[in-house]
Each structure stands twice: as C-alpha cells, then as structure tokens.
Amino acid sequence: MLIPVVVAAALMNAAMVAASAVSAILIADDLGPALAGLPNTAGVLGTAAGAMAVGRWTARLGRAQALRTGYGVGVAGGASTVLAAVGGPVALLFVGMFLLGVGNAASLLSRYAAADAAPPDRRSQAMSTVIWASTIGAAGGPFLMAPSQSFASGFGLPAIAGPFLLALAAVFSALVASTYIRRTRSTDAPQVRRVAGGHSVLLAAGVMVVGQVVMVSVMTAVPVHTHLHHDGLGLLGVMLSIHTLGMFALSPLTGWCIDRFGPRVVSLAGLVGLLAAAVLVTRTGLVFTPALFLLGYAWNLCYLGGSAQLGSAELESRVESSIWTVSALATAASPWLFTLGGFPVLAMISVILAVPLLVLVLRRGERIVVPR
C-alpha cells in the first residue's frame, strides 16, 4: 500500500507548489503586490482546517476513504483556481487555494496511512518515505510550470492558467492514486502505549509546533534578507533549494534513526539542530546557506520524531492543524520581527521557544513500548 500513498503525496505537493507560485503573481497583477500573499495564506488556513476535517473523516469513514475525500476536495480547489485564471471572479482563487489546502492536509496526514500498514518496527521508516516523496513534488513541479504555460497558450487560454491546469491535473492524479490505498487496521486504537502517561504526547506536539515556528520564521525572512543585500533571485533560488533538500531528502535516514534509537532521541537532535541553525543564520557569509540546510533537517527531525509519538487519528489531525495555524501566524509576524532586529531577533525567539522544550524532553525519559 506504500506506493499509492507515496505517489499521491508527491503529486499533491507538486500541485501546491505550482498553484502557490503563480497565485501570488495573479493577485499582484489584479489587486496589487501588497495583497500578493493572500492566496497562499488561504492555502495555509485550508491546510489547518483540512487537517481537522480529515481527522473527523478518518474516525467516521476510515483512513483510506478520508484521504480520498481530502484529495477530492483538492480537485474542486484546483478547478476553482483554473476558473479564476481564465477570467472568473478573483474570489475563486482564494476559494480554490483554501480547498487545495484541504487536499494538502490529506497528503500530509497520509504518512500515518503508510505507518498503519507497516510492521511495528518499520512505522517510522514508512512515514519518512512519504515525507521524502515531497522532495519529488517540490523539485519536479517547478520544472513543469513553463511548459504548462505554453500548453495553455496553445489552446487560446491565458498563459498564467497553465500552472493552475498543471495543479488540477496533479491533484486529480493524486485522487486516482489514492483509490489504490486499502483499508488498514483501526486508526483510532493507539499504535503505541506510553508507559508514563500523556505528557510525552504533549511534548511530541510541542516539538513539532516549535520546529515549524522556528523554520517558518527564519525562512520567511530569507527572501527579505537577500533582497536587502541585492543578492538576486538566482542566489535566493539556490538557498531555497538547499533548504528544501534539508527538509525532505534525508527523511529515510530520520525514519531509520527513529526505529533504531527511538523518537525521543531524534526529537532532541532536532531541537539542538534548530538552536544551532538559528544561531548560525545570524552570521552572514559562507555558513549562511549550510545553516539553512541544517534548519531544514532539524525541522525534519522534529516533525518525524514528534509524529512517531502520536497514536490516534484525532491527535494526528489536531497537531497537524495546530502546526499550520502557527505557520500562518509565524509567516505574518516574521517580516515585522526581522525589520526590528534582523536574524538576531528571530534567533533569540527561537532560543526562548526551544530551550525550555529541550529541557523538558531531557527530563522526561518515558519509554515507548510497541505492543507485539
């Protein structure tokens, strides 16, 4: 069952990358550059709301059908963005990005479907494979954007409609791939038993949320930093690509480490990596770009290390929703904070958030017992 889950996740990620990139351009042309970020904000909020919805659908319909429903909503979103691009009301773009966000939530939560189907000692590797698939979508989607513009123009449509057509085709293909996902064991029963109670679950959620806040805050400021230093889009593209590789490319290694050493050790490594990256980005020069890679991989360690400790569909959806809600807040606050004091201010906030959590995780050494 892992193959259809991975394929669907990669396709959905490609759809989000394509739609997100051109939606900002479309709004900048129609409503002005100041509002260009609104479609992506709608997508983030759609992901947050979609995470809660997919969790409820999972409880009622089962994991496989919940994912298919989420991808189906994403198809409706892709169609709405196409209509907006070919001359429809601009409001359709915001609706479409929100609905695509629901599909994106299904893609993110599909890692647990892979874990459900894996042996107990391979759950984390299965989840990491789904996250790794995001690399394919993130890297492959942008390369298809220019040909998609030519394709749209060839049919007499506005060139900007091409990437939206690409997004629609990708999310529809994700829906088709999801029909091959088969029902697994109950997702409401805990996959693991926590010997010392529920505090480890709260810490796991905290690790995931803090990892997201630190990563999003820093990376939102990077384009502003490069623009102020007149570095150009070429260098910015390299920085973003290296950071993306850090986020996804080493996911199989993370999964192996979780299954070998446990999620607590991996979560600790992620928090330490976050602190190191936050400090290193304050030093411009040769260490800056490697620090962005470290930041991406530290996020990966926190995200997968925390995910491995969640044991029910309700918890999974609530934590995912929280992650994307704070993403919206961090995205909005980061440029303002950066103008106050640059990366040192963001680093200070990162330390304030991560150090207490690091201490708590160190102090709580609960064993996690996987039932036979």
Secondary structure: elements and pairs:
Layout: H1 2-31, H2 38-61, H3 63-85, H4 91-117, H5 123-143, H6 145-154, H7 161-178, E1 193-194, H8 199-228, H9 232-248, H10 251-261, H11 263-280, H12 288-307, H13 313-363, E2 368-369
Antiparallel strand pairs: 1-2
Order of helices and strands: HHHHHHHEHHHHHHE
What share of residues are in beta strands?
Answer: under 5%
Question: Main beta sheet: strand number and arrangement?
Answer: 2 strands, antiparallel
Q: Please estimate the helix content.
A: over 70%
| Basic shape | globular
Give, in spatial order, the strands making up the sheet with the most strands: 1-2
Radius of gyration: 20 Å
Report the end-to-end length measured between terminal Cα atoms: 21 Å
DSSP helical segment count: 13
Throw out a few tags for this protein.
13 helices, mainly alpha, two-stranded antiparallel ribbon, 372 residues, disordered C terminus
Give your account of this protein's structure.
With 372 residues, the chain is mainly α. It is built from 13 helices and two strands. A two-stranded antiparallel ribbon has the order 1-2. Helix 2 packs antiparallel against helix 3, helix 8 (199-228) runs antiparallel to helix 9 (232-248) and helix 8 packs parallel to helix 11 (263-280). The two termini are 21 Å apart. The model is unreliable at 186-197 and 366-372 (pLDDT under 50).
